[in-house]
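Predict fold of ATP-dependent RNA helicase DHH1; 512 aa.
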Amino acid sequence: MATIMDNNTTSHSTASGNDDWKSKLNIPKKDTRPQTEDVLNIKGNTFEDFHLKRELLMGIFEAGFEKPSPIQEESIPVAITGRDILARAKNGTGKTAAFVIPTLQKIKPKVNKIQALIMVPTRELALQTSQVVRTLGKHCGISCMVTTGGTNLRDDILRLNDTVHVLVGTPGRVLDLASRKIADLSECALFIMDEADKMLSRDFKTIIEQILIFLPKNHQSLLFSATFPLTVKEFMVKHLNKPYEINLMEELTLKGITQYYAFVEERQKLHCLNTLFAKLQINQAIIFCNSTNRVELLAKKITDLGYSCYYSHARMKQQERNKVFHEFRQGKVRTLVCSDLLTRGIDIQAVNVVINFDFPKTAETYLHRIGRSGRFGHLGLAINLINWNDRFNLYKIEQELGTEIAAIPATIDKSLYVAENESTVPIPFPIEQQQLHHPQQQQQQQHPSVPNQNMMMMNQIPQQQNNPQFTAQPQHFNQQQHAIPPQMQFNQQQMTQLHPQHQQQFNPQPQF
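Predicted 3D structure, encoded as tokens:
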């Protein structure tokens, strides 16, 4: 390992020979929740074994990282050598840190140039990724800037007048800045794509290839994703130099997530959701709908039921989306209703329940949705509300993912998705204010208020909204009030029309 260290690397003996610096670190409370083998099946390396700079190790330990996950263990030492990487790993297994840590190791703080470009598909993921860079690199003297569409271009121009070492952004805005010669990428030796399958889809592929023109010819490329379609392979052949391939995806589904379905008619979905709210011990939940209109309508209905709820979708203003995302991450609201906008990479450890109010049509979408719970190998629960028209999609997704989505039982074992000690669930690092608002909006942020009624549904929010973590005290459950109505009971003739795989699983009288 010592032979592959660059000039910017602190020797292992220097980093670990004197442990006095460790005693001065502000280490957060240990996360004692059980984890699955997805993140525990490691070779036994520590972060110090990677010969990282002491300043970087300090940031890693103060972020609560103890040992590298399998994807981090595989990719960090290879990335530090300068080799291209094509890495495939499950959602929630530490992919972001797997490329952020070698990026921070290779950056030279005294060189006032953009040295790393991290491309992500959504604005929320850009905010989150830039915060990981800032958190892990807080002792390294490295400057990180996030730039996305929907924000003021003038603000980006002003910030690029100062030193920026790492640029995190969405494709359209980065291409705009590069083509205007506002962002100088001529010395950007490291090019990273997170969620590479989405980045190389029809929406972004042309823009990505245009951005590459502005990078030096011999740059290093790191591609990370949970799925690699044919477009990624084509990009690899064309643009990567003998990449080191990592595949930790022998099984597609997440082992820590228990998956159930409830077979209900469309008009009974809200009633079913209300029942779930009453009976489940929800810390935080994300509910997915298939359209923006249904997102807004459902959020209002949930609020009318007396539950705290925000919503987010692509048609909202960027400032409003940022505020919703930030406050949900901080635990100021229990439930978030959204479209597939937030299926990519969003990491909120406190989310222990995901509900597909509308069942997705593809296995890829399903995988990314349920991956919002059970982060980093912890336990989570995914519940799918399906109607008659969804039955074949359910069967198809089970076949493609090699999993079984069981009928929801009368009682769900809390040990499947509830942490014994919820105080140990890590609270996300707060996203810095300048990432949320433009400079002229800083004064408003000092006295935050609800942006407008179209952004968030906040009527009748319980007092617990101000707590950083919810203790999940469900409302009193009235068996009479929440009894399953006759409309949800399907007759035997309907049952025989289901796919054979599920004829016995759909209970004619479903109970929750």
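Residues 29-247 form a domain with the Rossmann fold fold (CATH 3.40.50.300).
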